[in-house]
């Protein structure tokens, strides 16, 4: 036969022995009391026949293959009961082998911990090497195997074991991290578990801080990661006043709290991982809320205790800096400070906070100045996890309900470096990311169900009590906790994939594309499961080494690690760069690093539009693709944008212009009134006016005779109809959420300056009228003498259909140029009035503003010199002049249309109208085989009245029509998903992150995690520290960042963040970076 050898499970090769097949089958038959004595020979003979066919050319068969054939033959021969017994026999022996392996592994586990040879010893940087650490390590190994063998399916377990992804905290049968409600603890006290000690709500500061310590210690035992409280200083400051404490007593209480919270009482000889958010100033939503002392609401409100908050924050910062008995800084709790627009940078009360930052870099800063976050929409949790409470609001309950009770179910990190090494092209790269994300999602959904069941059974008794309100609302304890997917080694992924690192333009561009794809996939998961998902920059101290070690074992020297040079030259252990961070030692300049990281760290919002659409900029109406391609040459350039906070349009600096491949996304085509026809990516945001109430009517009530539209769309816009006031508000909708009947917002504010202009209303009207009804030619006469005297002089010709208009022209040139003119009246019905003037001041005036001699060209446009003289007062006169010259007025509708064979001219009028807040629509057509373009003014009456400075007509019916035509919205007529040939779309980023004005035939407003900064030197002063933190907040979009001002060097542990005289890990004397 072809088979001579068998490969055992341990990889050992042995001789093939048919008797072992007979023996196993006979034992299975005896188990079911079968009377067939020949069953062993029969089955063995059939199995050998199969093996001869399968291995006719020789080879080594594996034990599992033989056993699978035995099962197959038993079933085929009709021995179903024996087959079942044989399967049970196999399972019994598998478990026996696992038991033997477990005892053998137990010895290895202890050895691996004691000699620190297992990477998992270092997975969590907060775990100390100790007896408790050993016990925790052994228990974690068993728990980890339970997850992989008993709970997760084979695909999840295999991908984790092979290093394609990493399931964090397998050693804990618990959630990742949790944010808790401090108000609930102060109101109810520390309690909730029968037979366990309980306390009444705290009445004193020391008691409150003591209960918080006990709460952290106890609840930390029911989770793998961080425990967090928000509004820490707001809720605790009133206790200082009610206890009548002086500052020294406050500081003593803080010393007790910080010392106790840093004692390593957590399982594994760890300090509980804790985080607190300090408000510094009482948030608006808590100012009027009654304070809680002893579980009771008092007559005073939190807004009355700012002085006590200042003392509380001062004491916290001072004690954190002073540290323990040896001056070692306290590691926990990690404080987070919110940097807002009204942050008091010069408040001396905050000096200890800046001193703490300058010395150790302890705090995290949440950037609410220049990022997409709102102080009420984010909860700080652990190293790099940022949770979005906007997602929680969608569940109901509001900010003051379930939102503090949030966190993360678990974290699964993807090995991006391996994906980069294996992918042949970008499409395969993304598909590999998607595949791993699908498995990560499956594992997290499994974990969520398991934890929910275990909570019901009482495995987490304190969590069960403090999550009681969430359970009541959703019938699930962990409904407000996110499923978190992380990534590791993006820099090495790019090096292996395209030989470019993440600091390169090409590398950063593709990294952003990958993160876009991941973000969209998470949104899809969220919609499918109704569970929350987020993307985390994983704090992967151990995972970075595990991934690199496994990849080196599998792919050898071909796969690139972060420290490749040291791996080759010194035999160092390989590792990958955390998440999407820059490679180590890339730059010593923090601002260079921030500029390279900025977009990656804040890449969670946005959208884009297809080419051909135009954006209104301070340099004119420009195609968006032209802005992107020529951005460096165009800088500085501003876009007209909408400030939703103050409901006004304003100019906003364009800070970036990008092209994006949207082939993975749905494209949405929006058709609306006024000729709007725009295709965007599905996530692209629009501002939409929504009626507050059921009736959807596009009307408003003017505040005065000359004011057609209210100033505050969000809260003040209303109409008088059917004895009801219809109010409107401005909301934001994605392109794929727009529906027929939605009103997309346009600009209604006149943004031209209210300043002096060289062109008053008369002069600018003359220039506007001259575009279509004027001509500069050489002087013509039948008299030889006159022709000789005026040779090479210009003649200005102006035409009009009616006498009233030509007389208006005469009046202007006589008043401003003291020019004599000649009027030629029409002789025939279709002829026009003609004014002739040879006044050189008049011709010079026209030349100065861009007009030339000769026939009009088909590409004429509004000259830049005229645009520069436009103001709030004269712009309407220019528009009126164009309509007077060649426009057609519909007196019944009150509208007008201006036509031109020059598209440039029409685009200029579109641009000017948009800046002036005048609603228009661009059209195109043909007349007598001649292509033309036009601008439709739906409300000509409005323009005419503003140009003439007349009061608007008061008659209600006419007023209503005017308002309806002038309303700054377009109504959506159709919204559909489409396929496009060119998937290269474009987008801009503005300094204030506002939606900018863009479109084609009409213009509408469309769109526009932690960064650790290491300085390498001690901050010289509090002033310089403040300046640096402020500069980062104001100039970068990073939502969350820390500052490490300097470091120290321990002879045993090496790098230590901050300035230390003794190593906080081993007490060895340390050197500062400067001394070293």
Describe the structure.
It is a single chain. The protein has 1076 residues and is of the alpha+beta class. Helix 9 packs across helix 12. Strands 4, 5, 6, 7, 10, 11, 14, 15, 16, 41 and 42 form an 11-stranded mixed sheet that branches. Strands 17, 18, 19, 20, 21, 38, 39 and 40 form an 8-stranded antiparallel sheet that branches. Residues 377-403, 582-607, 694-726, 951-966, 1008-1019, 1046-1062 and 1068-1076 have low confidence and may be disordered. 40% of the residues lie in helices and 21% in strands. Among the domains are: 5-93, no CATH class; 182-339, no CATH class; 609-748 and 969-974 and 987-1006, Hedgehog/Intein (Hint) domain (Endonuclease - Pi-scei, Chain A, domain 1), CATH 2.170.16; 761-966, Endonuclease I-creI (Roll); 1046-1076, no CATH class. The chain has 35 helices and 45 strands.
